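**Sequence, structure tokens**
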Amino acid sequence: MNANGADFLTLADPEAFATAEPGAFAWDATRGALRLATSDTPRLPAEPRAAALAAWAAARPVSRDGFGQIAILNDAATELRYTLTWPPENAAPVRVTAGVGTDTAAAILDPVSPPEGARFTDVHLGTGTRLALGYTDGASHGVLIVDLERRWQRRVALPIAPSRVWTDPSDRVWAASDTHLMLVRGGPLPQPYRPRPDRFEPVEIEPDPPRLLWQRLLPLGASLLGLAADDTHLYLLTWREEAAAPGHIQTVLRRRLDEDPAAEIESFDLPPELPFATDLRGAEPGTLTLMVPPDPDDTAFRQRDLPAIRLQTRADDGRAAVALPRRFPQPAPAAARFANGPDGRPWIVTAAGPIGLWPLAQVRYPAEMTGTLAPLDSGAPGTVWHKIVLDACIPRGTTLTVEARARDDDGPLDRWHRQPAPVWTALPSELPFHAGIFAPNPGTEGTFEILLQRDDGAVRQIAGRRLELRLRLTSDGRVSPAIAAMRVYLPRRSWQELYLPRHFRQHSAQTDLPGPANGADMRERALAAFEGMLTPVEDRIAAAEAWLSPESAPSDHLSRLAGLVGGSAPEHWPEDRRRRWVAATGEMQRTRGTLAGLCLALDIVTDGAVARGHVVPVETYRLRRAVATILGLDLDDRDHPLTLGTGENGNAIVGPNLLLSDETARDFLALFAPELAETTGDAAAVAAFFDRYAHRVSLVVHGPARPFLALIEETAEAQIPAGVIWRTIETDRPFVMGLSPLLGIDTLLEESPAWRRVMLDDTFLGREGLLNSPAALAPELVSGAPISGDAT
């Protein structure tokens, strides 16, 4: 609600911008805006169903890893091979170990092959490290899982022969047949485990072995062609015969990509005008691409585009697959199955090898499209609708026109009234201190306003409970207008009716008679123009407290705001840190010089490292150790991995700290039971002990916080009193066995740092280095980092 008491209704998502005319507009998920739907007409092949099915049966599954190595099956489909060139005439067997571990048996490399007498049915290498192969011999069936990084293979028996398999980013394997969908999950232990009779053994040796989790029926009567997945859903392409033309129905089945066996399977029939498809893949967010075998008679290869579809669920719970005017041209004739690429995008298999499939870069938009939005309900009859504010982009050569009409529930349906052209405003947004969605660019990008009004008549207010809007977008064919958000304000707060004498107000009733506007209507709309300029200023004044709040103040005012409370917010700090520092300035001033104040300041400058346990300020006396003395043994712990040099006055070689007398034993009393000091001498010794060690602070800095070390020391210098001695203790491990239990620090969950290449005389294996095989079909041929692109 603004300063004049007007509220607004917001349209800012695909559901709010849904139109009664399907296909008029499209929601651009990348930009988060409504725009014209492209007018490209895909040039689709028209291969008959029988020929398409024959091409699908003859196509071999192909995968490509991140290093440019291509996985294929031999002619008998009994062995997985790899090749670096195409055609794959000199393909070599892919070899991994049959077991897991480092013993002699596991070190023998074996070919990737199914059980004796079986043949592979499908191959899929996902974006992770695992490759899955379905197999069957007619009587027994299963899936073979191969981990290309750890170089092991495991077979999992299945009750049904899988015709298609898919490995998702979580290394789960989805296997499907004409009748069933199955999920396989798990993996072996990193090293072989051998039970021994002289010790307790775990109940389960492998807590998550590769196994079949569940199977469920698919809709009966359909044949499976394709299987694919994106980040959220699994998709199955099926077909069944039908008496009506074109003689078949193709359906895309969709379910969530989770382990719930009861998850709903949604069914979307493909439009009958599409040619017979043999495979599918996710191409863009919310878009699927279908594989259509090329027509062999199309020697010029003119009908070479692949269809793109979007699965839509209507408000009446109806489901449909909508063909999109989006062109995905094949650069050359391709096989009837998609290849699997390392980036999760669709790849096609041509005579030159696997090639990535991309949409046509230059799109075309229709010259003009119109769409009607769902009615907006004010909840009150006779509401006078005020204005529309658009966060929009209207490039040169395009236009955006709005038509409006309103009516009450029992009133007649009004005609459409064309609104004036949107007027660009210099403010990023009419909302106070809002940064806006589009960067202001005069006349083309930013905030636009439209004063709602009838296009004819003496009284031109648009009044009624329900407001209907119709958008008309035009284009030059190359660019399209875009609307990210639309705010419709209501009701109108008329300055004329509120502040002018009665004889200046509107005395005429609204009619449908044509004619010029009367004087009162002209004054109302003229004053509304001033209101449009002044209300945002009033709103900013009314919300002036936002300038004083660290959470909402403009970033360039944070330093000034910090100065008002006697603090400072360095300009080079990230904005979130500066805001938190200003917000906590008062609390830090109140607790300055205390452990709580130090913890708060360090937590802010390290972006929460104290709260996460990566920086631990601790009073040094808590680090003092005293255990049974061992004469002659050097217990200097400066390089000790358990204590990292934190031991204060603990055991040492014979010297000042050797606890051999009654007098020095009083330190034990101060450490473990100061309340038991009964004599005056004991009490004095305890007090002297605390005097020596209570004014010292140690800052334990764990690995993830070490880049903040200079900032930690700068903050400690400013926050710790001059009479306190402090130091920092660095460690790259989140849990120090001899230190963390003493301080009450639990183990920390943290992201593992990226492994770097092993360097002789420099790398500590297991701590900062890991010998790992690259996730490649032939790791011995890998010489660099993974590659991307269409290189074969």
